[in-house]
Design a protein that fits this description.
The complex is a heterotrimer of chains A (481), B (262) and C (268). Chain A is an alpha+beta fold and 481 residues long. Chain A is built from nine helices and 32 strands. Chain C is mainly alpha-helical and 268 residues long. Chain C folds into two domains: 65 residues; 170 residues, Orthogonal Bundle (MetI-like fold). Classes of the chains: A alpha+beta (481), B mainly alpha (262), C mainly alpha (268).
């Protein structure tokens, strides 16, 4: 039936702001009629911008938005059969509840009697019968929220957009509204697109979750998929608590990570570099000799339903959730069943960036000359008396025409907070960090606009300003044709 | 074309260009040209060599300075007493102090003139004194209001904190209230000083004599000397700019020291 | 004890300074005296003169019409300007805000004189057309309307406009049904400020008005130079009437805001 039809499709949507900031890049999504889809991600990940493009408040710089197969990306918001519930409700303060809800219907020139009927019905739906004459300022946050939902729903939109609608409510109210919203969705059969940064909210309510980070989709899937089979370290780290380790496949469904050997269920070829994700609740505490790995308990925190136990195993830190406590300082074993391990093929984190050849025919990056031999790099080249670089035919090489790519591994880059250090090649700000058991993996937004991935054993703070030292002997260069 | 909220600003932007920017450009042009449209510095040198104009400049600066000082000396205590009073109706009382601003100034000056004449007889006998009285009478509310607004918004716990830390009343006032009310004082000064330099009508009405900067423009105007008048207007504009820059930077400074104090 | 006396005495003395001249003039406006002195007999003749002299009547009506007209134009222009600049790029809006400050801080003499030169001397517009006068008063008032509307726009929840569009309003409908009601308070206070500024103006009017037209200010200033005592004392009556009117307006405003506050308090 209609249920299998895509109500809305986003194709290669990108949004670059006037200042050059790319809020969303190459976003592709299909939403089926009646689905509850959630955009999940940290603030600034582009989820609200995407929602605003669907609503029509923002226009994509590239790509198209298809509603029932029709491109609507150039249509103004008032021409789209889509309504929005705003983050801070955006109720019109100079109108009472009835006038707020009737706003859209009056614009459609609907007869007054019909408007009255519809408003009454929708107020019943949100449990606010008889609130017509009340003014906005007399309502509590939760009630305003309901009015905002009613005001959108009364227009019978094909899609309801909800922009962090529960963000301003207290915890108890939020839980209640989550259940009610879900019930409303099931009852009305309208497609919901929901934006939140709260992973628990996303997992409870959605049919489909779109995890976003830095303007890109990280994973699309059901809540179960996202939780159990995260596609990359970001998703694993963002959804729930996880232990994330770098490792390698040592045989058929055999992996080595965190200093131990493990059976797993993912069939990845031997020798592949991997990232292993183990949820804290999937680790069992055992006697020291019975575990796959062992370590010393360094902290125990009681969390109500369980204990959160941190164990130092060699250079790795492992977090465990257990109903049984352990003694700080004691040595314990840790055991993980094969299905408790999620193996992902390691992302290739090698940093690749272009370097220039300058007028002196030397390599240069970000204004600093790199002391490396170009004659070795470019086959058959040599220097003449003026130190100009000649190609194999003896002609002077034009710096504009040669493209050289440098690469360096994340663990070979050093970070320093002394940005004036003369070894520093480039400065940037830490925009992301993930703990990987024995080190942190950082994403540095550099001033050139390029992101660098840096592994470092020490904890730096988000938004720290750092200088990157790229040792010359660790860099590899390649001439690009 | 899609309707945009930005385009709504165009009529006003055009209006500002036509009737605010253009007149100033014309003023510049006239100040530096003569009747034949040739470039000249004559008007400038005339202004700064004529003892008459220089005397007027000095006299109006003196009147403005004294008027401002007198207004401040009267307004500060009044604003402070009202702002710190525990009366519930203080917003009504401040309204009473400000109300004269809404009565046409020429009618108020008429009233003042009648009273002063009764007391002094011929007002032209003490021109400076009467100028200051007239201007103070006219501008006093403009000094009271900003100072009152600043003090009334001060957090009462600040003086209590100062007292708690061992300051006596006088110290608490000098070290806390006074510095924090500086922004109000500065805005009051700028609302009094500039009009006091230019509002020649007050003097004109009081004793038929007008020896301040504003009146120079009027006399050139009466003589159809646009070029000389433009130069006077330009000099006034320069003084206003200087004064605004000074009070702005003063504002920033007090904001900063205020911040440091907190 | 002495502190208490000072706290009462200082404000009272200043109030006396501000009000005694107005009150004495009010008292004498009901007498037949031509200057302050001994009162011989009470009469309403000044009020009769005020309303029966054609010259005085047309001057008052002219002043009020000018004030209302200029304030209306200024409110439209200033509000449009504020909305446009608020939603423009930062550079555009700060440029508008800067130029907007010029008439605010400039001396009225300079504003009036420069407008007169531009319109009358350069463009040859006749003062008798009233155009220079109206332009002058709008220039005086519009910046203040702009300044009172901008804060209301800043206070407004920025998603209200989007919410209106989302619910099917065209941009124009969103502006009139949602944005304008939100900034109406700023527009009203801008309008009343504009009216008082125009009523109180002397300088811009002198440099731009037609020779045969007078505002209250220009008329009173000229009258003090003249020797027509019946006109002079009729102006005392005018002063008294304006004084009473101001008291009434302030009283009503206070009463209303007091009631609004009380309502708020009851709600909370």
């Amino acid at each position: 039936m209609e249920n299998n039809q895509n109500i809305i499709e986003l194709k290669h949507i990108s949004r670059t702001f006037e200042d050059g900031f790319r809020a969303v890049s190459d976003f592709n999504l299909e939403v089926k009629r009646g689905e509850f889809v959630t955009f999940l991600g940290p603030s600034g990940c582009g989820k609200t911008t995407t929602l605003r493009m669907i609503a029509g408040f923002d226009m994509p710089t590239e790509g198209e938005i298809l509603l029932n197969g029709q491109d609507i990306s150039k249509l103004p918001p008032n021409k789209r059969p889509i309504n929005t519930v705003f983050q801070r409700y955006a109720l019109f303060p100079h109108m009472n509840i009835f006038e707020n809800i009737a706003f859209g219907l009056k614009l459609k020139k609907m007869p007054r009697e019909e408007i009255k009927k519809k408003v009454k019905k929708v107020l019943e739906l949100v449990d606010l019968e008889g609130f017509e004459k009340r003014s906005v300022s007399t309502l509590s946050g939760g009630q305003q929220q309901r009015v905002a939902i009613a005001r959108a729903l009364v227009n019978e939109p094909e899609i309801l957009l909800l922009d962090e609608p529960l963000g301003a409510l207290d915890l108890k109210m939020r839980k209640e509204m989550q259940i009610e919203l879900k019930a409303m969705h099931d009852e009305l059969g309208i497609t919901f697109i929901y934006v939140t940064h709260d992973q628990e909210e996303a997992l409870t309510m959605s049919d489909k979750i779109v995890v976003m980070s830095e303007g890109k989709i990280q994973q699309i899937g059901t809540p179960e998929d996202i939780y159990n089979e995260p596609q990359n370290a970001f998703v694993a780290d963002f959804i729930g608590e996880s232990n994330i380790f770098n490792g390698i496949m040592t045989g058929t469904m055999q992996a080595r990570f965190a200093g131990g050997h493990f059976q797993c269920v993912d069939d990845v070829p031997e020798g592949t570099q991997i990232t292993a994700v183990v949820r804290p609740e999937d680790i069992e505490l055992t006697a020291p000799e019975q575990g796959q790995i062992r370590g010393k308990v360094i902290s125990v925190i009681f969390k109500g339903i369980h204990y959160e136990i941190t164990v130092q195993s060699g250079r790795y830190e492992v977090v465990i959730q257990s109903t049984k406590s352990a003694e700080v300082g004691s040595v314990v074993g840790m055991k993980v069943e094969p299905d408790g391990i999620h193996i992902m093929i390691a992302e290739n984190n090698t940093n690749v960036f272009p370097v220039d050849m300058n007028r002196n025919h030397r390599l240069e990056f970000n204004g600093t000359e790199l002391d490396t031999s170009l004659t070795q790099l470019i086959k058959g080249s040599r220097r003449n008396e003026e130190h100009e670089l000649l190609d194999e035919n003896g002609e002077v090489i034009d710096p504009e025409k040669i493209h050289i790519i440098a690469s360096i591994e994340p663990q070979d880059i050093r970070m320093t907070d002394d940005v004036d250090d003369e070894q520093v090649l480039i400065e940037g700000t830490i925009s992301n960090l993930i703990y990987k058991g024995d080190h942190y993996s950082y994403v540095i937004n550099t001033d050139l606009g390029q992101d660098f991935i840096v592994d470092d054993e020490y904890l730096w703070n988000m938004d720290d300003r750092v200088g990157l030292i790229l040792p010359l002997d660790k860099m590899r260069f390649q001439v690009k044709k | 074309m899609r309707f945009s909220r930005k385009t709504l600003g165009i009529p006003y932007a055009v209006f500002l260009l036509l009737f605010v920017v253009a007149p100033l450009l014309v003023l510049f042009y006239y100040a530096f040209t003569n009747g034949k449209g040739e470039f000249t510095l004559q008007n400038l040198t005339d202004f700064f060599t004529d003892p008459n104009t220089l005397g007027t400049l000095a006299y109006s600066l003196a009147i403005a300075a004294v008027t401002t000082a007198v207004c401040l000396l009267i307004a500060y205590p009044v604003a402070y007493i009202l702002a710190t009073s525990k009366l519930k109706a203080k917003s009504v009382i401040i309204m009473i102090f400000v109300m004269p601003m809404w009565i046409n100034f020429s009618l108020r000056i008429t009233a003042l003139k009648e009273i002063l004449t009764l007391v002094e007889g011929n007002l032209a006998r003490y021109p400076f004194l009467n100028s200051v009285i007239g201007m103070t009478y006219d501008f006093l509310p403009f000094m009271i209001l900003p100072i009152y607004n600043t003090i009334v918004k001060l957090d009462g716990s600040l003086t209590e904190a100062a007292r708690d830390l061992g300051a006596n009343d006088r110290m608490a006032f000098l070290r806390v209230t006074l510095p924090l009310s500086l922004p109000g004082i500065i805005s009051g000064i700028s609302m009094v000083f500039l009009p006091a330099m230019t509002n020649y009508v007050v003097l004109d009405m009081l004793y038929n004599s007008t020896y301040i900067m504003g009146s120079l423009i009027s006399s050139y105007f009466a003589a159809f000397n646009w070029h000389g008048g433009s130069m006077i207007a330009l000099v006034l504009l320069g003084i206003i700019c200087l004064f605004t820059l000074l009070s702005d930077s003063g504002d920033e400074k007090t904001a900063r020291t205020g911040g440091a104090l907190l | 004890m002495s502190r208490k006396i000072v706290r009462i005495a200082v404000p009272v003395l200043v109030l006396l300074f501000l009000y005694v001249p107005i009150l004495i003039l009010a008292l004498y406006s009901f007498t037949d005296a031509t200057q302050i002195g001994a009162i011989r007999s009470f009469t309403l003749k000044n009020y009769v003169t005020l309303f029966s002299t054609e010259e005085l009547r047309s001057m008052i009506v002219g002043t009020i019409l000018l004030a209302l007209g200029a304030a209306l134009l200024a409110t439209i222009l200033g509000t449009l300007g504020a909305i446009g600049s608020f939603y423009s790029r930062k550079r555009t809006s700060s440029a508008i805000a800067t130029v907007n400050q010029i008439p605010v801080i400039n001396a009225d003499v300079v504003t009036g004189f420069s407008l007169c030169i531009l319109l009358v001397v350069v463009f040859g517009v006749s003062k008798d057309s009233y155009i220079p006068l109206v332009v002058g008063h709008v220039t005086l008032c519009a910046p203040f309307v702009y300044l009172s509307v901008i804060p209301k726009l800043k206070q407004m929840d920025s998603s209200l406009y989007e919410a209106a569009m989302d619910l099917g309003a065209t941009p124009a409908q969103a502006l009139f049904r949602v944005v304008i009601p939100q900034i109406l308070g700023g527009m009203v206070s801008g309008f009343s400020l504009a009216v008082t500024l125009s009523l109180d103006d002397y300088f811009i009017a002198t440099y731009t008005k037609p020779a045969t037209f007078d505002t209250i200010s220009t008329y009173v200033v000229n009258a003090t130079r003249g020797s027509q005592t019946d006109i002079k004392t009729a102006l005392w009556a005018l002063s008294t009437l304006i004084f009473v009117l101001v008291i009434v307006i302030v009283g009503v405003m206070n009463f209303n805001s007091g009631r609004a506050q009380k309502k708020e308090a009851e709600k909370a």
